[in-house]
Amino acid sequence: MNKENAQRNTIIDAFINKEKVNWQEVLATIISGFDCTTGTIHFLDEQTSLLKVQAHQGIPPFLVPKLSAIPIGKGMAGIAAERREPVEMCNLQTDDSGVARPAAKETKVEGSIAVPMLLNGKLYGTLGIAKPVPYDFTSEEVSDLLSIGEKISGFVSQ
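Structure for GAF domain-containing protein, as requested:
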């Protein structure tokens, strides 16, 4: 683990190892640590099987209702949850795969990724971050995001 990765994990640990977690602060720290501008944290509501937003940053206000509750299998977060693996787009604005929902383009982000938050194979939610420029996340960054998701899941599962 390089210095930057260790620093990210230490900062995130500081926010998560509290009795009451401010998920907005956690998300802001993750976004900043990956030099992004936008992001979401969704927790899985096991009763409804919907991903419910816990924190968001950089999302236009008119889009917030559309991402408040996401069905498994819909959009980047829903597909990451369904597949239990990261879903990434180098440029969401030009993507025509159908993975991103049409409204997602309204965020004006380009390089984006959604990762499942898993602990011992159990899904607890998703974490998504994005940049305003085309970008492919490195394998180290993806690994770090999965690790952060695992830490968040460990807290949520308590």
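The CA atoms of residues 66 and 103 lie 8 Å apart.
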